[in-house]
Specification:
It is built from seven helices and three strands; from the N terminus they run H-H-E-H-H-E-E-H-H-H. It is flat and about 35 Å long. The protein has 132 residues and is mainly alpha-helical. The longest helix is centred in the N-terminal third of the chain and has 18 residues, at 3-20. It has helices at residues 3-20, 23-40, 58-65, 69-77, 94-104, 108-113, 120-124, and strands at residues 55-57, 84-86, 89-93.
Length: 132
């Protein structure tokens, strides 16, 4: 796939989520768009890429998620985020980051059912249909 086509597809997914007006879907699509956008930075539109082979540095993942890089490293060390060591730091596949984003955006009820409690970030996010 060409980098420009992947950018267009990610933007179309974000636009579809915006039209659906579902806050959780918008947040997921926006996080995915940021991750793909950061991983494609500097590539020409005609460059050939595979989404499954796009990588991000620890610092880039932190920027996408709004976390400190050390928190991202803790997520990796505890097994919540898959990564590989490279040049003294970690590299994260965009697809693996998408899995964390999806987990992070699940409702607290679904997380309790799965045996996991919500993080402070997740508790601060208002859920659709609940008063603020």
């Amino acid at each position: 796939m060409k980098a420009g086509a992947l950018r267009d597809r990610v933007n179309a997914d974000l636009a579809a989520a915006m039209r659906a007006r579902d806050p959780v879907a918008i947040a997921r699509a926006a996080d995915r768009a940021k991750a793909v956008g950061v991983s494609l930075a500097g590539l020409a539109d005609d460059a050939s890429v595979r989404k499954s082979e796009l990588w991000l540095t620890t610092r880039s993942v932190a920027a996408v998620l709004g976390y400190h890089p050390e928190h991202v490293r803790r997520l990796i060390r505890t097994g919540r985020l898959r990564a590989e060591r490279a040049s003294g730091d970690y590299r994260v596949k965009v697809d693996d980051l998408s899995a964390l984003v999806d987990e992070r955006r699940r409702s607290p009820r679904a997380q309790r059912a799965a045996g996991r409690t919500a993080t402070r970030d997740e508790r601060a996010m208002p859920q659709q249909g609940t008063p603020k």
